[in-house]
Design goal:
By secondary structure, this protein is mainly α. The mean pLDDT is about 80.
């Protein structure tokens, strides 16, 4: 383990009590629990940042929309956007 540095933080009393109780249950010191959580959080944050730049995962945003009620209006949207004769197709650039 790398060299440790002492840092003081303020935590809500209820949270400290939860950490102490968890420490008694699992035999883990409060400072070790906090260290583990912070390491996990920072590691996960880095993983998510790496995923955001992955080209295949960028495909997941293709259906992104600023509209917030799409799932509630799905039937209405489908009824107005899909022709019963020709089906659905992307609008042409000149039709926009």
């Amino acid at each position: 383990m790398s060299e440790m540095t002492y840092t003081q933080v303020s935590l809500p009393r209820a949270l400290v009590e939860q950490l102490r109780e968890r420490g008694r249950t699992y035999g883990v010191a409060v400072e070790d629990q906090i260290r583990q959580v912070l390491e996990s959080y920072l590691s996960r944050e880095e993983e998510l940042a790496n995923l955001a730049t992955h080209p295949l995962l960028a495909l997941a945003n293709l259906g992104e929309s600023s509209e917030t009620d799409i799932s509630e209006r799905a039937e209405e949207i489908l009824a107005t956007e899909i022709s019963p004769v020709t089906g659905w197709s992307m609008p042409h650039a000149d039709a926009r």
